[in-house]
Amino acid sequence: MLWKNREQSSNVEDRRGMSSGGKLGVGGGIGGIIIALIYMFIGGGDMGQVIDSVQSASQNQTATEQYKPSAQEEELATFSKVVMKDLETVWSKLFTQDGKQYEYPKLVLFSGTVTSACGRAGSSTGPFYCTGDNKVYIDLSFFQELKAKFNAPGDFAMAYVLAHEVGHHVQNILGISQQVMRLRDQVSEKEYNQYMVRLELQADYFAGVWAHYAEKMNILEPGDIEEAMGAASAVGDDRLQKQYQGYVVPDSFTHGTSEQRSRWFMKGFKSGDMNGGDTFNARSI
Known about the structure:
Elements: E1 12-15, E2 18-20, H1 33-40, E3 61-63, H2 71-97, E4 106-110, E5 113-116, E6 119-122, E7 128-130, E8 135-138, H3 141-148, H4 155-174, H5 176-182, H6 189-216, H7 224-234, H8 237-245, H9 258-271
Parallel strand pairs: 1-4, 4-8
Antiparallel strand pairs: 2-3, 5-6, 7-8
Helix pairs in contact: 1-8, 2-4, 4-6, 4-7, 6-9, 7-9
């Protein structure tokens, strides 16, 4: 991906080196300890769906000491800001063409722990989007884990992660997230998990839509789409369950299989149509 020396988003909060109070509770409709573990490494999601004890985002968050990021981390921060700017450009244009108004999300960079409107989370949670404050949260160390733990290297693999989270922001603006969340106490855990899978696959589709226009902006390099596909596949429920517990429980899936995630990303990439990813009415996902 051609990203160096390009415009960066100004909608960024740098909370690295800050500490936060509060606690994080994971539970509810997602189910079981292993599913909570897998969610920590899923590479995306709306934390509003899994946090049981929602804390106030106004809790004190103060600097612990002078934070000195490495040169590599600073490069990742710059990269993330450039990708967020590209996402703002594409989604603003698509919403305008569709007669809608796009509200920019904020990117929050943190280290260690962070407090959001959805509660307190740690680095092990992985990147997440919070519907309560319209912000994408990421500890940049996750990008190292993406390469080392999930064998998904490459700058466009990292871009896919951010694009997926912004896909959740698009769902929030369109009211899709709220419709799914309202079902949490109305259906069985198994059925709710199926809705969650469709929500996540749609976010993958939206990530692909952005990639479609990124290609038209001539910022992609050979192999970039393959990197994104590799990242999407690496965080499939089936692959993660097999890796962390040794067997697969399809009824507990909340994000989709490796095949589904990469396929819906590619659907979005090929179409570029923000209205073409209705995973909820698709006969087969």
